[in-house]
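Entry for the shared binder. Reason: the reviewer on the internal report wants the predicted structure included alongside the sequence.
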Amino acid sequence: MTSILRFVEVFALGTWVGSIIFLSFAVAPGAFMVLSNRHDAGAVVGYSLGQLHWGGIIAGFIYLAALILEQKSLTGWFRAAAFAVILMMALTFSSQYFVSRRMTVLRAEMGLIDSTPLESPLRVEFDSLHRASVRIEVTILLLGLAGLFLTVREIGK
């Protein structure tokens, strides 16, 4: 049973990390290269990011449940990898419910972002939130890589 639970941990976290990498290096650049305008590409990336966020939160719960079952107690929560996953989940939740939600409202208010002047308060706020979103996603990715490394290292002991 321990081997199955460890597999579930690695699979859940690995899937989340892999999804972040795929979105960042394939979906987002591809959308901006293939679609005819930046507005549509942004809509595709925003939708995909929302799906990634939900998938990540679910993967985090699966990871933590498997870890607790493996340890047969709540002591699994006190591992560095578990802390990384909990932090990933918190950042993902914040990004989805605060940053992305506000960006969606701003996109609707501006219409086409590229036609909104750079000095417009709406555009300034949108660009600031976009930078914050990127920083949050990079942090989640780095935490995920660290958590995955720590999980695999623990399995090897």
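Summary line for the report: Residues 2-156 form one domain.
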